[in-house]
Amino acid sequence: MKVNYWFRKFLGKEADDKIRAGVLIFAVAAFVFHLLIYLLHQFDFIEINGDAKTLVNSPLSSLYTPFSILLTYETYQLIRTLPSSFSTSVGKQYEVVTLLVVRDVFKRLADFDADDDWAINGELGLILLECITFLILFFTALSYRRSSDVSEISTVDESELDSFVHSKRIISLMLFVAFLGMAAYSFTTWTQAVIDGKGGVDREIFFSDFFTILILADILILLLSYRFTVDFANLARNTGFILSTVILRVAISAPGISAVILFTLSGILGLAILRISSEFVRDRKSSV
């Protein structure tokens, strides 16, 4: 079928292998280029003013570029996992956000002035909280990766299940097209802003819009799943996963401490849903 052909062509394993190889080369080249821009600015060969100056505050600023590229690739991986289980897809969302928080920590460390007061309630305190948030999100992501899929679509024959997977592949392809469009638009507008001296760096660029589209895709998949199961536990579990994604989306746009609290809340909620679901399925299987 055409859907399966296009899915394999753009989101299949062979396509992923080629994209991963290209991304690694591009990330290294971008890192070297950013570092070169920093050195040229330091020795006054070029002048960078405005918000764009945050890109050359220190050598650590150059880490922002390769991490942004790797984050984009991880987002592509997230789209690839969408036709698989709901929990696998949610786990990949946490992996993306974990790297997003790490990138923010790198940025704050690059901007951190050691001569400032080392007050825990200042910038240092926010770096500390973001590192704790990273550990929580990291643990959450690994928990989803380790966990087997606990969802069950009962009383579904093979043809119906294939139809469900086919529908999810269509959604993945649509999300992939949106991903390419948003990535191109975000990069173009941000580059133009940098040229104009207004190109600051923050996690809202691209990821805010993408997670909004991702939530819509998750809801559509949830609605499609109603065709195959009316089991409350599965439906409530998947609804909880969507809730955790919504919290992640709000956290991406939130400032300072608010973002840290929301990221942490999403991680704790995701772990709780995964644990409760695992226990429920284990108890149900043991009673059969």
Q: Can you describe what's shown?
A:
Residues 150-155 have low confidence and may be disordered. The chain has helices at residues 2-11, 13-42, 64-81, 86-111, 123-146, 158-195, 207-225, 232-253, 256-286. The radius of gyration is 21 Å and the shape is globular. It is 76% helix and 0% strand. It has nine helices and no strands. The longest helix has 38 residues, at 158-195. It is mainly α and 288 residues long.
| Helix share bin | over 70%
Tell me the series of helices and strands, N- to C-terminal: HHHHHHHHH
The gross shape turns out to be globular
The main β sheet shows up as:
none
Distance between the termini: 39 Å
Low-confidence stretches: 150-155
* SS field, number of helical segments: 9
Radius of gyration: 21 Å
Pairing-aware structural class of the strands and helices?
mainly alpha
Mean pLDDT: 84
Percentage of β-strand residues = under 5%
Topology, number of strands: 0
